[in-house]
Automatic annotation (TrEMBL):
In the N-terminal section; belongs to the CofE family. The gene is fbiB. FMN binds at A295, S406, R443. Binds 2 divalent metal cations per subunit. The ions could be magnesium and/or manganese. Monovalent cation. The ion could be potassium. GTP binds at I20, P21, E22, V23, S55, K60, N109. It comes from the Bacteria. This is Bifunctional F420 biosynthesis protein FbiB.
Amino acid sequence: MTGLPGDGVPAYRVWALPGIPEVRAGDDLTKIIAAAAGAEGLPGLADGDVLLVTSKIVSKAEGRMLRATDREAAIDAEAVRVVARRGALRIVETRLGLVMAAAGVDASNTEAGTILLLPEDPDASARALRDGLRDALGVEVGVVITDTFGRPWRTGLTDVAIGAAGVRVLDDLRGGLDAHGNPLNVTTVATGDELAAAGDLVKGKTAGLPVAVVRGLAHVVAGADSDADSGVDSGVEEGARALVRAPADDMFRLGTSEAVREAVTLRRTIREFTDDPVDPGAVRRAVAAAVTAPAPHHTTPWRFVLLESEASRVRLLDAMRDAWISDLRGDGFGEESIAKRVRRGDVLRKAPYLVVPCLVMDGSHTYPDARRNAAEREMFVVAAGAAVQNFLVALAGERLGSAWVSSTMFCADVVRSVLSLPAGWDPMGAVAVGRAAAPPRERPGRSAAEFIEVR
């Protein structure tokens, strides 16, 4: 290894520790790492070094291994909330406050048929390693437990700190001045993550080198010099937990009005779909959003009939087509005109998934006059429309295209008969669902002012 530059030139050195064997449950990581660090040809460990340890070997030593078939249940157990979902991928917040894919449950770098959970308490794991190395080697080092993250708005992965001991993981520069004398109002450097990423450059993902050492940054290690030990430093006391943004400071935790507006504009009528199958779970999540719509008298006037088999879709659409043709002939339309009109229903026939929203007047009030009874039904119809809009917007959030078509409303008896629905269920159109075959055409924006009257 080359030496560091002379005094006064900021620099550090980082190297991986070869010779780490396959770690198994119950292994003593302190002994394993101490032996690897002291191997011939390596400089050993010294006060002020920072040890960067991949979380997988910590998890293995702590017995945090499960069968691969338990993966989804493990994610559920580790997660406290789902932040985002794309198909089968879930970005979740873990019990540790980390926001990451699949709660860090990983099937890489572990035996076939098994998965690894993150360490139960990575900060505690880091403290145990630091204390063990102090006792074994008499050195005062910092320890960072690392894991691999994706990041919002950035492509690619990098290692970050999920556990730490004896390391100032945050360098709060607020209140200071930059080189030009400008005040620093928001600058807090994530030193723990920077160290983790530096170690990953030499550890790699597939080289079997789970531990690295950084030398030359003793100022970030508590106990290694006078500066790091002066005063109370929450970045040292809390470990990597200090890197987790508090919910009150998280601008994107629950979304913003801008995000809501974007979600609404994602809903576009799609008339051409691919043959890709539709995830039934995504449709059910959209139904869950639909039934949050407002409704009269604290009722739940919505039902959603999911036509998941091709046979059920064809049976319904054939019956609806026949009823439509009969109506058109009764209206005096010629056969060519009828065929042209019936082709408008192809959007439903070509979709891989259909949903029939229904209105149910459960809990409605009855009045002695037609005027109020009509108004009562209109209230319920408005509630049904709100639910359908929620449903379409939620489908767009699942990256599914949709088209609401009113045709079932014109042959309600046929729909009820074919689908064996109760007499009180009134179909409120049909929703074609699928992957859009092409991006929707651009549409001109609408000015809200055109639709507003102020009194």
